[in-house]
Amino acid sequence: MPPDLGQGAGQAFQDAAALTRHLAGAEPGDVVRRLLRDDAERRPSANRMMRAAAGSRG
Fold first, then answer.
1. Measured on CA atoms in the order 26, 31, 33, 39, is the torsion positive or negative?
2. Which pLDDT score, from 0 to 100, does residue 56 have?
3. Cβ-proximal residues to 3 (8 Å cutoff; 6+ apart), any chain
4. Of 8, 19, 29, 53, which is least surrounded by CB within 10 A?
């Protein structure tokens, strides 16, 4: 995460909370599917922050 918006730590906390939510009670056979769901949930927000940070540089 670029440092421009000061979101690195905040995004890390959100990632940790989402991972905890998605992996809670997972059986080994469920982990890949749950990680893919986590990625689908978190990626749009992270990408928005990265685009915003990139835009603040120019």
1. positive
2. 65
3. 53
4. 29
Q: For residue 56, tell me if it sits in a domain.
A: yes
Three-state DSSP at 26 gives coil
The residue segments making up the domain with residue 36 are 32-58
Spatial separation of the C-alpha atoms in residues 56 and 58, rounded to whole Å: 6
pLDDT band at 55 (very low <50, low <70, confident <90, very high): confident
Direct distance between the N- and C-terminal alpha carbons of the chain, in angstroms, rounded to an integer: 17
Is 11 part of a structural domain of the chain?
no
Q: Residue 2 pLDDT more than 80?
A: no
40 part of a folded domain: yes
Q: State the average pLDDT over residues 22-40.
A: 96
Q: How many domains does the chain have?
A: 1
